[in-house]
Amino acid sequence: MSVLVGKNSRVVVQGITGRDGKFHALQMREYGTKVVAGVTPGRGGEDVAGIPVFNSVREAVAATRANASVIYVPSFAAADAIYEACDAGIGVIVCISEGIPTLDMVKVVDYLKQRKVRLVGPNCPGVITPGEAKVGIMPAAIHMPGPVGVVSRSGTLTYEVVYHLTSRGIGQSTCLGIGGDPIIGTNFIDALALFEADKETKAVVLIGEIGGTDEEEAAKFIKNHMTKPVVAFIAGITAPPGKRMGHAGAIIAGGTGTAKEKIEAFQAVGVPVAKTPAEISELVARRLAKRSEKRNQKRVTPRKSMKKKSRLKGRQKKISKNVKRSAKKLDKKLR
Amino acid sequence: MKVHEYQAKEIFATFGIPVPLGEVATTPNEARLIAERVAKKVVIKAQVHVGGRGKAGGVKFASTPDEAYRVASAILSMSIKGLPVKKVLVGECLDVKDEYYLGVVVDRRSQKPTIMVSAAGGVDIEEVARVSPEKIHKFIVDPARGLLAYEARELAFKIVPDGKLALKTADVVRKLYNTFVSVDASLAEINPFVRTASGEMIALDAKLNLDDNALERRPELEKLRDPESESPYETRAREKGLSYVKLDGAIGCIVNGAGLAMATMDMIKYYGGEPANFLDIGGSSNPEKVIAAMDIVLSDKNVKAVLFNIFGGITRCDDVAKGIVAALNQMEIAVPVVVRLTGTNEDEARRILGGASVVPVSAMDEGVKQAISLSRGGV
User: Fold this and answer.
1) What is the pLDDT of residue A63?
2) Widest pairwise Cα distance in chain A
3) Hey, what CATH topology would domain A1-122 get?
4) Residue B315: predicted pLDDT
5) Could A157 and B216 be called an inter-chain contact, meaning their C-beta atoms sit closer than 8 Å?
6) What would the mean pLDDT of B160-175 be, rounded to a whole number?
7) What pLDDT does residue A331 have?
8) Measured between alpha carbons, how far is residue A129 from residues A119, B19, B76, B130 in Å?
9) Interface of B with A in 174-233 (CB under 8 A)
10) Structure letter (DSSP) for residue B344
11) Whether pLDDT at B235 is above 50
């Protein structure tokens, strides 16, 4: 199992004849992603290295049964591209494009939520399920399959963190870049709920930054709904207030959105916050070790209490089922 | 992008929001002429992009045109929080009876535009929100249908008891929301929104922040940008497509990606140094961008070492390396340059940098430590 994208994803690339769209379409295919179609209005009938190009997403879906889309169109056309994917029946839309006006995104997100369509981004590196599928622009080579879910507002900082995880032999279930804009389709809570419900994910790394209160909300969610360990990192301790730090969403406004508040929010609910990107992998390794230690301890329970144990196991199963169900419900609600 | 009060008032007025009589002046003489036209007591307000200008002495009254001249000349020669005052707004003085607050923002939590109104206007609204949040009434707008007239009325009646005045207020709330949407604002605020002795409801102050992402489709608003509000280096960086924020430390940073750039600054601080800037060269790896970035970072005379931290994805390490070599050839660089390049085409990059006088490192931690040590004259 994986989160959002995987072996069964059939991807249509919107903006496939553009420089970035073409490059990354081929990179994704090389990684093993099923890139089934491309869309560039007016270029229908052509192909990009064997990938058929269509005039509209609707045509692409009809011809190829695409169920996921990735968007590489310029900012002025990106909101339209998201609506088009949604109206064509695409279930998971990943928008890489940067620079979409905020009030356009307000309308887009509202529209998609009413239709229960999942949007990741905009202004994000995309989603990768190592060993299965890559839908985005991240360097594939640094990833490896494994038990850690990664969710982040940043691109290259995520690569840095994943690089450390992989170097340490810790693989990833799915890495989810949610984007650096103030209005995004999938936030930390959505991602945490998905990871909590995912069987393969044993621990989660959350990479936040200054601006907004998404991290604080995530801390509350972790306290109330997460059974899996979470390790956090927050960028921007040295960021001055009132200045936009590259990302449109990375700004300390009216005294809120500081790194300090976010770090404290996590620490208050028992989530360790790494001081450097390298430290994240250490903290994750420790948490994973603790988990498997606990499991091993349970395994050596003497025979006498086997009955009790199996009853316990049954109860645990029930609990985890309930958690999953409530996570799913919550996810639906949030959408 | 922030716009000045006088610009915000001009925009508000075009949307039908009542504002006081007044004009902007750049010289004391202009201020005198405006005061003559207004023909009563005036208030003279410094037009700078910093908060707390009133406390700093940037807002003063004048009863006669001659006094307006003297006051304007004093304000135009001052600096507020390091920013020189180049313009003043000369406006009519109103007989204020009540002060309210009206504002529109995009609320990140609900992901929708949100109207805020309060009868506790005239003071710092963030302070009100902290101390007595019950005094602020919020309304989340359905973005698909916009703010309806009845919704604006319900809000207005919460803060203005008098029926007639509440209807006037509701009208302004709707016009403020229309302005917000029409100019792609991230914040539109009237604080204070006042009731005068003669029963008028007027926007005494005006604040408007515009969404940078929307300026491309609203070129007429780009003209409102005040070049004085940012340093020449910030202007240059923006024109080159780089995100740059100047800080006060000794280590210049050139990084790809905003998150990694912030993490680099944080790590410099963590290991005991101080970053000189935030700089994100963005996704593309055009060598010319690298040269411009070097030039901007080195123009800061506090910089004692430069640290490149590049994690190649779309950004190709070989392109960045080419840019570094070109910059080293073109510029006189007196400070050590520490270079960390990982990711796409890093081997090629290493080859390009082979003979260059840079300090190559392979990890972020190592690069940060090296840069700190070198900035202090270490080896």
Assistant:
1) 98
2) 73
3) Rossmann fold (3.40.50)
4) 84
5) no
6) 96
7) 52
8) 16, 56, 60, 43
9) 181, 184, 186, 211-214, 216-217
10) T
11) yes
Over the Cα atoms of chain B, what is R_g?
26
Quick one: which H or E segment has residue B112?
A: strand B112-118
What pLDDT does residue A299 have? 58
Cα distance between residue A144 and residue A227, in whole Å: 24
Q: What is the ipTM of this complex?
A: 0.90
d(CA A225, CA B326): 53
CA B1 – CA B186 distance, rounded (Å): 9
| CA distance linking residue A283 with residue A279, whole number of Å | 6
- Residue spans of chain A under pLDDT 50: 1, 305, 319, 333-335
Domain A138-335 in CATH 3.30.470.20? The answer is: no
**B231-375 is classed in which CATH architecture?**
3-Layer(aba) Sandwich (3.40)
Q: What is the CATH number of domain B96-222?
A: 3.30.470.20
Q: Between β-strands B79-80 and B83-84, what pairing exists: parallel, antiparallel or unpaired?
A: antiparallel
B261-284: pLDDT as tens digits? 999 999 999 999 999 999 999 876
Average pLDDT over chain B reads: 93
CA B172 – CA B194 distance, rounded (Å): 12
B256 and B321 Cβ atoms separated by less than 8 Å: no
- B window 332-351, beta carbon within 8 A of A: 342-344
**Which residues 294-333 of A have a C-beta within 8 angstroms of B?**
none
Q: pTM here?
A: 0.89
φ, ψ of residue B340 to 5 degrees: the values are -120, 115
Distances (CA, A) of A150 to A126, A139, B25, B376: 12, 15, 54, 37
The yes-or-no answer on residue A143 being catalytic is no
Largest CA distance in chain B: 79
Give ∠ CA A32-A35-A37 in degrees, rounded to 5: 170
Contacts of A75 in chain B (CB under 8 A): 213, 216
- Which of A154, A213, A240 faces B108 most closely, judged by CB atoms? A213
Least confident of A197-201, B53-57, B303-307: B53-57
Task: Confirm whether A1-122 and A138-335 share one CATH topology.
Answer: yes
Is it true that domain B21-92 has CATH number 3.10.180.10? Answer: no
pLDDT digits (tens, 9 = 90+) for B71-101: 999 999 999 888 889 999 999 999 999 999 9
The pLDDT score that the predictor gives to residue A333 is 47
User: Residue A73 and residue A96: Cα distance in Å, rounded?
Assistant: 8
